[in-house]
Hints:
- This protein is 3% helix and 38% strand.
- By secondary structure, it is mainly beta.
- Keywords: Signal.
Amino acid sequence: MTKPLLALRRAGLALMAAGLSRAAVAAPITEAPTRLLVTGLSLPDRMATTYGWLDAHHLAVTTPPPGDDDAYSGLRRLVAVDARTGAQTVLLERGFLSCANPHTGVVAAYVGDLRKLLRGGPAAAPVLTWFRWDAQQTRLVPQPPPPGPPMHPQQCRPFDPEDDRNGQVMTGAAPVRTLEPGHGQIRWTWDPATGQRGAVQWMRGAERRTLDVPAERIQALVDWLPYRSAYLLTPGLYRVEQGQMTELLPLTTMDQQGRTAQVPTPAALAPGLSRDWTHQVFSVPMRGGQLLAVPGRSHDGAGLYRHTAQGLQRVFCGPKPGGATDDALRDHTRCFEDEPIRVSPDGCQAAFATRYDADGRLRTTGLQGQVHMLDLCGRAVR
């Protein structure tokens, strides 16, 4: 993984705020907590993809079986959660997610458990199995990948054999990004001996367009955003210090004709963050705007922010999320865990992990906290 994207992956780490006096916030923050769905599903580890969207309404979550609080037992099951109702359906009693493509329904999961890997012994190794997501029946149907180019088992998307040269398809170094069917490719020249990358081009048949984006800024998996008819080339990464924002990586998208656009982060965010700390901010697209994540304590301005035409609003980890008192959040070391925030394919739901429930109470089960889902498009909680 390239250094800028590795920094982005780690931007959810805490800012080590424990034990210090409450810091002043430079400007008032507009609070607009939205409907929060607490799944109660713990994340056991980072050894495999922990959760991913199956479609616009269903999230697949890898979680330990009920009653198993030992993250190193090796036991995993795969559960689908309906973001509209909270209903949960067990997809695999023994298995864990590798990847899911919500646009095509292709899912890869390992059937079995990790006991052999974690504890040794005679247990069989898990087997990579391909499925088709059946939303009507809320189940996974075993089905080989569709004919054509090979399907990558960590992306659930076709890839060019050159894309996996030297096994670097997941690190961001490989020189090809295969887009959705009919949308072409992103490609650049690359010298593996020197690590030098050439100009980046979007290609579709005879069409060509040179992108004004350096290759090292394009993430390994280029996400298709149907609600924008565009691809996410890289999420945004910013630093706020003493009320001033510095752009480290701009949030960059590309349309189906290879035209890129940078989404600016609202200037109103920086004044609302404590001047006592240096803040990392990262952003991803959502329907009608962008979702901004600021790790740290609620008192210092940390939380999840929604930025739309209606302005900038903190939608999670405010002073009173779901009825919690301000004191209940005084010792927040982080509002959410070091797991990616995954926005649904319709841009209206955000899935993330946190150790705090809707009442502000700390949950200790699950090494990476529990999965929550936040409604980004519905009405605010009153």
